[in-house]
Amino acid sequence: INEDYKNAIEDYKMLIDSFEISNEKVYLNLAHSYYLLNDTANAIENYNYASLTDDEKIKSIAYQQLGNINESKNNLEDALNYYKNSIISDNMNNDSKFNYELVKKKIESNKNNKEDKKEKEKNKSEEKNNDKKENQDKKDKNKNQDEEGKKDDDKKNQKNDDKKNDNKKSEKENKEKSVEEKLKEINMTKEKAEMILDALNNN
Question: Per-residue b/e over 147-184, b at no fewer than 16 CB within 10 Å?
């Protein structure tokens, strides 16, 4: 089959080059042959030549094919415009009408998908920021709790130190009181006992 298309291309090119027959039908058929051989570059060139005609039906077909090629390459905006021009040229071209609506829906769907993706990325970013904030709040809370705990420990330690000092003071007072009580029991004053103690120390 490919050989048939290649032969057709040679024949159409001969008509154009040798016989100088370059009407829109020849360009359209030449473009079809290139298109069926997947040679889109030459197909596009000849469909563009064919679209220059005053024959509205041939112009419509040429635009339709240019639309098909762009749709296959996912150039949807260009495809939509070609299908639109095809319909304007021949309002009876139902294939172009169908393709126009189909591509229009694809474009809207892609737009919605992009918006959804953008919204998801926005939500994801907000969630990430919220998590970051929560973690920071948690760290701050733990830091405050540590500081409060340290303050409580310091207060507790100070209280214990005060209690120890009070106990030492109390023990000293009790000791002094005990000495005085013993001296009282033997009818000796504290001053006299100190004099005796000094005399013993001096000897």
Answer: eeeeeeeeeeeeeeeeeeeeeeeeeeeeeeeeeeeebe
Short-list 95, 103, 53, CA closest to 78: 103
Amino acid (1-letter code) at residue 11: D
> Is the pLDDT reported for residue 103 higher than 80?
yes
User: What digits encode the pLDDT tens for the residues 153-195?
Assistant: 778 778 877 777 776 776 666 565 565 666 565 656 667 767 7
Return the ∠ at Cα 100 (arms to 94 and 104), rounded to 5°.
150
What is d(CA 144, CA 56) in angstroms, rounded to the nearest whole number? Answer: 82
Query: Which position has the token pair 């000495």?
Result: 179
User: SS3 of 83, please?
Assistant: helix
Q: How far is CA 20 from the centre of its chain?
A: 60
Q: What is the pTM of this model?
A: 0.57
In this structure, are residues 38 and 5 in contact, taking their beta carbons and an 8 Å threshold? no
Which of 22, 3, 121, 4 lies closest to 12, judged by CA? 22
